[in-house]
């Protein structure tokens, strides 16, 4: 672990969710020691925290090239490539991380997500349960639930959502998934209730539009036209997420 | 490899389903520039039609026409036919808009869309039908059941090359995301005895700005009026419900076909309608962009649809691809609707950005096995756009013309399925909205005729029915809106029957 003041300062700033300042703090160290593995990894994490996988990638590729046996380097590179939707090299990086550090919950979760991204559904279905067993986060069963939802395996998806909520009862995305499952099953009142609860919880803003979309449909099915119109208006006010 | 395994693999391979056909002396000019302007990656469409009435299906592209001389020999007749090879052509569709018994053409362009009247002497006479724009898909359909083909003319985004956004990366220009351009309204024309009158405002069509790539006319609620489903790129799809008297209501949101399950608009490109699950209702298919998964909307009745991409296997099989031309058809003549989809990433420079995606993608054939679709790739990867299906050699096997962006088109010839028989219907009155029913060994099947579909393309107008192992159909019924049902008994298999009322 580098003992430089720059590294400690950058690390602390990143923890305080001040990535721009963290990058500035780290820059002198990287300029002085371009092969400093820990500094490269931290630089990658700072860029990822700014949603810039493209800028993170060169730092992480350099780190894994200089230290090919370092699991965390491959893991972070895998995440970076996954976020950048470049699933084939992401899979390669995550498989390397998995060999170097087997049974790591984070690695297994991203491996499953990457298999899913590559439409290797059977592999994803095999790895998700392992990731859930070794990863205490509520995100792991939720991610599995989303895959099961796309396969129309709604009962299995619901079991995973319930597990996710057991791990974090206030996870907004999990309540939204539950609302979707209720909707699919024709339980429109419960769908509206779960969706309404999701709206009140803190969490990712990206799910706000889908929640209003779902609520608009649920209230429409319940013939509550004013509420349906209100959520439709809210849904249409929020710009959609770009996929490409 | 053990013989049994080898046979299994051979049966499942694309080569066993289709084989390469003739190569046309034509290469699509996409007007490629270093700047990568929006219209360059759109076309072309393709059409299969018998323009000279000789019983052999010819092939058209937006700027070229090839006459079928028999034995799968084709002659370029573009110059003598009057087809304008100089326009920036995008799509091509076919209909007998003046009811003279001859198929006419409509070519959409980045420019003025051209309506080509078939003069019957091998020549076409062009007239412009709308102001210049970025016109993509055209669908002829009889919206008011008056016996004349009305016209939906789809427009993509408002586009001005002078204000093309800069979507470069590392010094290379890439095609911009369609979100970069504002949507634009499409048009509807009423066919008044061969003259087109713009009813876009009065019909309700003009009130909905979109970025139209695909459209299909089909009676989705069984009320005897053709509805119009329109696939948009990066904005919600439209479902125009035909309320009669040339009035349409847009109902896609309430019908469940506007957005993905999360409420995101997708990149709708190719479309089709067919009853893939045999429940008597027309379902919808939309080819989308990679990672969006393609949609297969089961028609639940009452204009309610549910995307069955998961349980049908379509979602997983298409997750990595960007789809364009497509068609439901009964390839193996077993009586159900199989499916073909041609694919290709729209960015020809995608491989400089991604090690996962490729510009050329596989053509996918999906065999329908009791409502679950099993994918098999056909041929080599290709940057496909338009797809026209038809029988180029009158052997009852549907062949395909695949038009590639900036490429020489591909022709694949259908291969017979041993033991299965077919029956072809060649009927001039067989227009969208008609219902064909047929009985084989006591089992009755049905197929509704739709108009449009695929991507910027038009298929062979004849209908091929699968008979399975039977050597004849006990009867075939043809129901055309506002006309008495026509029933013909004891039709022999493995031939076309030219039927007239």
Describe this protein's structure.
- The complex is a heterodimer of chains A (244) and B (501).
- Chain A is an all-alpha fold.
- Chain A contains 14 helices and no strands.
- The radius of gyration of chain A is 21 Å and the shape is globular.
- Chain B is mainly β and 501 residues long.
- In chain B, strands 6, 7, 8, 9, 10, 11, 15 and 16 form an 8-stranded antiparallel β-sheet that branches. Chain B has a 5-stranded antiparallel β-sheet with strand order 21-20-19-18-36.
- The A-B interface holds A 85-89, 117-119, 121, 149-153, 180, 209-210, 212-214, 220, 232, 235, 240-244 and B 177, 179, 253-254, 259, 261-267, 289, 291-293, 308-311, 315-317, 319-320, 354-356.
Brief rundown of the structure:
The complex is a heterodimer of chains A (244) and B (501). Chain A has 244 residues and is mainly alpha-helical.
Topology diagram in text:
The complex is a heterodimer of chains A (244) and B (501).
Chain A: H1 5-15, H2 19-32, H3 37-49, H4 53-66, H5 71-83, H6 87-100, H7 105-117, H8 121-134, H9 139-150, H10 154-167, H11 172-184, H12 188-200, H13 208-221, H14 225-237
Helix pairs in contact in A: 1-2, 1-3, 2-3, 3-4, 3-5, 4-5, 5-6, 5-7, 6-7, 7-8, 7-9, 8-9, 9-10, 9-11, 10-11, 11-12, 11-13, 12-13, 13-14
Chain B: H1 3-12, H2 14-17, E1 18-20, E2 47-49, E3 58-61, E4 64-68, E5 74-76, H3 78-81, E6 89-95, E7 104-111, E8 114-118, E9 124-128, E10 133-141, E11 150-155, E12 168-169, E13 172-173, E14 184-185, E15 187-192, E16 195-198, H4 200-203, E17 209-210, E18 212-218, E19 227-232, E20 238-244, E21 247-250, H5 252-255, E22 271-274, E23 283-286, E24 295-301, E25 304-307, H6 309-312, H7 314-318, E26 323-329, E27 338-343, E28 361-369, E29 372-382, E30 384-390, E31 399-404, E32 410-414, E33 421-427, E34 435-440, E35 443-448, E36 451-452, E37 463-468, E38 472-479, E39 486-492, E40 496-499
Parallel strand pairs in B: 33-40
Antiparallel strand pairs in B: 1-32, 2-3, 3-4, 4-5, 6-7, 7-8, 7-10, 8-9, 10-11, 11-15, 12-13, 14-17, 15-16, 18-19, 18-36, 19-20, 20-21, 22-23, 23-24, 24-25, 26-27, 27-28, 28-29, 30-31, 31-32, 33-37, 34-35, 34-38, 38-39
